[in-house]
Design a protein that fits this description.
The chain is α/β, with parallel strands linked by helices and about 475 residues long. It has two domains: about 5-140, Rossmann fold (3-Layer(aba) Sandwich), CATH 3.40.50.720; about 170-410 and about 430-470, Dihydrodipicolinate Reductase, domain 2 (2-Layer Sandwich). Helix content is about 35%, strand content about 20%. It is built from 16 helices and 17 strands. Helix 1 (about 10-25) packs across helix 2 (about 45-65) and helix 9 crosses helix 10.
């Protein structure tokens, strides 16, 4: 490996995730000392300025126990910087000279979508698109199917599909990858993984934060396109996919795209009954009063900050099983999780007087703590004149307990390593992206056709009351 080229190298993502992730790979010996990391952005900066910025970004990780200062200094020496205005083709030649050997390069593109096309053109003109070059694309990849296709067409003009690594950082999370291991490395779950044993599936991505400096981006995007279109549909696909023939990029992604194409359309006929949209008002988060969305924004807006919906995968395995998805800002707690809710036992031998009977549930928690747990029914120890008493107990697979000698990684570490080494399994293929956008565009058109506007909800709550009713109609309840 010759070089890693980071576009947007002075931005927030680079400081918080990319540079610490590359440093983590260096500490573990997964990033050779001969690998050169070249940052580029519009900011006027030289090598020493970029290294100073990187040192500041890494400081908390070093003091937190990731490597030591000597290892950090070694990594910092691998960094260099080339200022570049990616909107013009001038300067890409200088960038190519800094890269040197342009045959084997991993490029990470973390820039505004408006810069994708000119950046690709500049890379092509500078000879940075050879057959061994890989390019990683950070979202958002468009705002609808048409704009996504335009971006993908521009990238495809310079790179083959095998060179393009579309990033969804949720796929780098340990729990998401553990979902594959749990399903396909154990005989316990797969025979039960479908309509015969599962009542419903829940996917929740809840945030307590508001706009947090993303004012212009978020108000033009909304919760559906910001979270559901990418992260949540990818998680749904991994839950619902058929077993692939082997763990390879095409085998895994072939099965995911089958799921995405099997999603029952939500459109003008059913958007008003299968979806709920909301926008947060003022309320309390963590004991502190917070402003409503329009107050934060400074103007009136019809953008949804919350969405809940009921999806169906129309195939044999999942026929009749609802997949409930919800995501929102300024909710009661920060968490991302998948709930597999199994059906109740068909007949209780313990009779109606036994208290505590509950269906089994499998919980896969992605944040704030990564964990997998299974709820089972067990007898409460002791005697009771009414007979056996049952209680729900949890079997936990906590990463910090089961793998105490393993460092908890940033999701981008896995993805950057795979980009550098050319492994595309955990990245999103073009046909997946387009299947996701097709489904999402239909929902948004359904909202428009039905004149739907966001329902208000108080910051610090779990969203509009209609979201509770959406699942209650099927005898289910959100895992609050």
């Amino acid at each position: 490996m010759t070089a890693v080229l980071l576009f947007g190298a002075t931005g927030d993502l680079s400081r918080r995730m990319l540079l610490p992730s590359l440093y983590g790979l260096s500490v573990d010996g997964l990033l050779g000392k001969q690998v050169r990391i070249i940052g580029t952005a519009r900011s006027a900066m030289d090598d020493e300025g970029f290294r100073a910025m990187a040192s500041e970004a890494l400081a908390g990780h070093v003091t937190g126990g990731l490597g030591d200062q000597a290892q950090a200094d070694t990594f910092i020496r691998q960094l260099s910087y080339v200022p570049l205005d990616a909107s013009t083709i001038e300067g890409f030649g200088t960038l190519a000279e800094a890269v040197g050997n342009t045959e084997d390069v991993a490029i990470f593109l973390s820039t505004a979508p408006s810069l994708f096309t000119p950046t690709i053109a500049g890379l092509k003109a500078a000879g940075l698109t050879g057959p061994l070059v890989r390019i990683g694309l950070e979202k958002p990849l468009g705002t609808d199917l048409a704009s996504s296709r335009a971006i993908n067409d521009a990238v495809a003009d310079a790179f083959s599909e095998s060179q393009i690594f579309r990033i969804d950082h949720y796929l780098g999370k340990e729990t998401v990858q553990n979902l594959l291991a749990m399903r396909f490395a154990n005989t316990l779950f797969e025979p039960l993984w479908g309509a015969q044993a599962i009542h419903h599936v829940q996917l929740t991505v809840a945030e307590t934060v508001g706009l947090e400096g993303r004012v212009d981006f978020y108000d033009g995007t909304g919760a559906l396109r910001d979270m559901v279109q990418n992260h949540m549909l990818q998680m749904l696909a991994l839950v619902a996919m058929e077993p692939p023939s082997h763990f390879s990029a095409n085998a895994v992604r072939d099965e995911k795209v089958k799921v995405l194409r099997s999603l029952r359309p939500i459109d003008s006929r059913n958007a008003d009954t299968e979806t709920v949209i909301g926008q947060y008002g003022e309320g309390t988060i963590g004991g502190m009063a917070v402003r409503g969305y329009t107050d934060e924004l400074g103007r009136a807006s019809g953008t949804e900050t919350f969405v809940a919906l009921k999806a169906h995968v129309d195939n044999w395995r999942w026929k009749g099983v609802p997949f409930y998805l919800r995501t929102g800002k300024r909710l009661a707690a920060r968490k991302s999780e998948i709930i597999i809710a199994f059906r109740p036992v068909p007949h209780s031998i313990f009779g109606e007087k036994v208290r505590g009977m509950a269906p089994n549930r499998l919980l896969l928690s992605l944040q704030p703590d990564e964990n997998i747990s299974m709820s089972l029914m067990a007898k409460v120890p002791g005697l009771d004149q009414t007979g056996i008493r049952l209680r729900e107990v949890l079997l936990n697979l906590k990463g910090e307990s089961a793998f105490r000698d393993t460092r908890r990684r940033i999701a981008y570490e896995r993805l950057l390593l795979d980009l550098i080494e050319g492994r595309p399994t955990l990245f999103v293929r073009r046909d997946e992206v387009e299947a996701q956008w097709t489904w999402i565009d239909s929902i948004r058109q359904g909202w428009s056709d039905n004149g739907m506007t966001p329902k208000p909800y108080a910051a610090g709550s779990w969203g509009p009351a209609a979201a509770m009713a959406l699942v209650a109609r099927d005898g289910a309840a959100w895992n609050d």
